[in-house]
Amino acid sequence: MKIFNCRLAIVVSIFNLQLLPSPLHPVGISISSGESGTISPKFRISNFEFRGTMNSRKIREEFLQYFKDHGHEIVKSASLVPQDDPTLLFINAGMAPFKNLFLGIEKRAYTRATSSQKCVRAGGKHNDLNEVGYTNRHHTFFEMLGNFSFGDYFKEGAIDMAWELLTVGYGIPEEKLWVSIYTDDDEAYKIWNETIGVPHEKILRFGDEDNFWSMGDTGPCGPCSEIYIDQGAEVGCGKLTCKPGCDCERYLEIWNLVFTQYNREPNDELTPLPKPNIDTGMGLERLAAVLQGVYSNYDSDLFVDIVKLTEELAGLRYGKDTKSDISFKVIADHSRAAAFLIADGIMPSNDGRGYVLRRIIRRAIRYGQVLGLKGPFLHRLTDKVVDLMNPDYPELGQSKRFIDEVMINEEQRFADTLFHGLSLLKEEMDQLRSKEQHIIPGSLVFRLYDTFGFPPDLVEDIARDDDFSIDIEGFDRSMAEQRATSQRSWKGSGQEVIPEVYRMLDSRGLDCRFLGYETLRAEGKVLSILKDGDLVDSGCEGERAEIILDQSPFYSESGGQAGDTGWMRNDTLSITIVDTIKYPTNLIVHKGEVVEGVVSVGDTVEAVVDEKRRKSIAKNHTATHLLQAALRETLGEHVKQAGSHVGPERMRFDFTHFAQIPPERLKEIETLVNLSIQENLPVTTAIMPRDEAFKQQAIALFEERYDDDVRVITIGDGLSRELCGGTHVTATGDIGVFFLVSEGAVASGVRRIEAFTGQGAIREIQKKMSHLNTISGLLKTTHDDLVTKVEHFIGDQKEKDREIELLTSKLLQKQSEDLIDTAKVLNGITVISQEVATTNPKDLRECGDHLKDKLKSGIIVLGAKGNGKVFLLCRITPDLTDRFNAGEIIKDLSVFVGGKGGGRKDMAEGGGTKVSELKNALLKAFDMVSEHSAR
Ligand code: ATP
Ligand code: MG
């Protein structure tokens, strides 16, 4: 095992001898390569002999330990899903989980912290997705090593520690390092130049774009300073202007130190913060590459095993061809991102975070195709990532099987469409090329997106490889058009297309106020009446009508909850309402039948909701929320509602999950829901801004868009918190009882649970009990002994079946022996044509076999009847098949009995429905043989 070379060993030991009490100097740092550290460097940078020794785990550990020794609290990486920041798609920097500390909203016991934070930069403000594969240093998922000061040390401390750790701790030669500062940050300049000793020419000044950091439009912000490592001219672009900040790989930015010293006021003015903060970030993957003596992150120990497995799967070598290397890098990077995102509870979907994940997976699959990888392969790599990273991120191991299933499912889903989409794209690109055009039209990008599930950036990748670009504005236009069209044909209940007449009423501004959260009975004025889809002035007794009021307590079917039923009445009329549906905006349509009098536009009626039914629906609806909470608790956070139906009788809940739920788990889930019911927890409703709801971690429906203000239903202290427009019970005890009756698959990755509550549950339990009682009575046993008894019965039955089979076979053998005696010889040919006493074709076949064995030469025609059908069979011994054809004989005879048949020369079957003709058919067989043989 190679440890550090002498030079570093000396530096470290001198360093340890010079322990100073100042927090700016490390206490007891000792860096060694640790147990593994046997990376063989691909490239060695001159004067960098010490490299190639430290594995990434050790690098991470030493970083955290160094800052711990300097009074920092080691803080575990937060989830990739921001917990209290609805504005952020993913955690994209080490500071993100500390945002509230920087803003002064939150206080903690420490003022210094250090972490190795999981980050994803694949969407939102930071998006490096398109860089991945094309550079050696950009990832969608990476770990950011960071140290933070919340009003504690500032610029000098941050710079001093960063420099010391890099040069002394990790042993990077000072002469390889460059730094950049913000244009007018003379304070930083002074520290770098005078205190640290970085020469003037190696300190570059950059403007707002590169070196000024802001959290948002207002709030804490400040200049930053970046540290670069010169990897040598051999990897640079060679331009004279090449220096840190150049796009090429020579000057690698490894660490960014942010000095949060201002507060940006709403008027854009910068006021100094009383206690400035420090936030730094260094990519572990970049540092690992540097310390392991390789130019590319993909050659570091964090990636080599993933790349190696890809090489095995593809049968190709990495590092041999620039084009395929892009694929290797994309696959390695994206498999890490996918595994970590799924482990943090994100599922591929068509919106938000889930869509970013889907794009990442699909991009990797597409690049896999370039390497010739067919069929699901990516899950093998995510599995590898799980094994490699699990020691440091146990959440991966905990979700190992789940990650695998999600990946396989997503890969299978995309496989077919990828193939067809790529062929279409190739064809279109060939055509464009022949016309010397190199822009893929937006409409095509949209078609690929809409029909084949190609994210536009995937099309862009393909285009880029062939020197094409894509018309993204055109794509956006097509997308907007489709949205408008689908909105126009959007349906209130989510089921049907809106009839023209409702669209027209809606555009006239017809509106109906919903009062049903507060009351079940209210007066309303009849605004419109529809009969068979036409607007009418009135509806008479016995007629069906759809009625729109200016206000109504009727809940219209939406969010899976069934519409209300009830009555509309006044002194002269009575209408029964059988359903309520919702069309655009607030058009509540009551479907009913006039049972008395005449209803006319302008009438005032009292609208009364069927209270008992509404209450039953509420029980089922609140139960779906409890069920969702129980499912998430038992199966995991990946469970998300995928649909539901809540009626008065029963509820149905669809959710994302990949495997069948075992019966004991279902029992656990049912028990959890019932426990929550027994606790009689309060169910409260609150209207709040959408962002606030997300902050409180309210669950929103999959891929649903919500208004700025949302309605949040909370059960207990937050046992369940969901965005929901439905009607609920006021306390869980009202539900009474929850009875789960079935679980099954609806679509791939979507399961369905059906259950009953309240009286419905009791009725269902009673029904099931009564079945049990009947069965127990029939079997003359108690409920407790029922299973044993049934098992006995099944055993007995099987035994009897075997006996019956044996006896039947014996009988058939006997019958066939008797049949031999009925044989006739016609023109020298032995013919048997007889009815067999059986009712099924299988026995007929067996009988035919016996006869054929007995009869050395001859023609056998057998018939049987049962259940209004005739079965026919013909067998001919091999010596006669050149003269007779069983298929032909059966064909003719079947027609005779009113059916069809046919088969081979030696064996054929058929039949029909004319049972009375069986006898004649069998006689006809003799005629056919004698006629044919006489020829
Ligand atoms: P670059 O200019 O190289 O894209 P950046 O300026 O966007 O980097 P910062 O936001 O300053 O990076 O992040 C701090 C550090 O995190 C960087 O110095 C780098 O080491 C690392 N880093 C940033 N983005 C990535 C990425 N996409 N993949 C890997 N490491 C990254
Ligand atoms: Mg930067």
Describe this structure in words.
- With 935 residues, the chain is α+β, with helices and mostly antiparallel strands.
- It is built from 25 helices and 37 strands.
- The protein is globular and about 120 Å long.
- It starts with 5 loop residues before the first helix and ends with a helix.
- The structure holds adenosine-5'-triphosphate and magnesium ion.
- Residues 226, 253, 256 line the site of magnesium ion.
Q: What order do the helices and strands come in, and which of them pair?
A:
Elements: H1 6-17, H2 56-69, E1 73-75, H3 99-102, E2 112-120, E3 122-123, E4 126-127, E5 141-149, H4 155-169, E6 177-182, H5 186-196, E7 203-206, H6 208-211, E8 212-214, E9 219-230, E10 251-264, E11 270-283, H7 284-291, H8 304-314, H9 322-343, H10 352-370, H11 378-389, H12 394-398, H13 400-434, E12 439-440, H14 442-452, H15 456-465, E13 469-470, H16 472-488, H17 500-507, E14 513-514, E15 521-531, E16 534-536, E17 538-539, E18 544-549, E19 551-552, E20 566-569, E21 574-583, E22 587-596, E23 599-600, E24 604-609, H18 611-635, E25 641-646, E26 650-656, H19 663-678, E27 683-689, H20 690-695, E28 709-715, E29 720-723, E30 738-747, E31 750-757, H21 758-779, H22 786-820, E32 824-826, E33 829-835, H23 841-854, E34 859-866, E35 869-876, H24 886-896, E36 900-903, E37 907-912, H25 918-934
Parallel strand pairs: 1-2, 6-7, 12-13, 14-19, 33-34
Antiparallel strand pairs: 2-5, 3-4, 5-11, 6-9, 8-9, 9-10, 10-11, 15-16, 15-18, 15-24, 17-23, 18-22, 20-21, 20-24, 21-22, 25-26, 26-31, 27-28, 28-29, 30-31, 32-33, 34-35, 35-37, 36-37
Helix pairs in contact: 4-5, 8-9, 8-11, 9-10, 9-11, 9-13, 10-13, 11-13, 13-14, 14-16, 18-19, 22-23, 24-25
The chain binds adenosine-5'-triphosphate and magnesium ion.
Adenosine-5'-triphosphate binds next to strand 5, strand 10, strand 11 and helix 7.
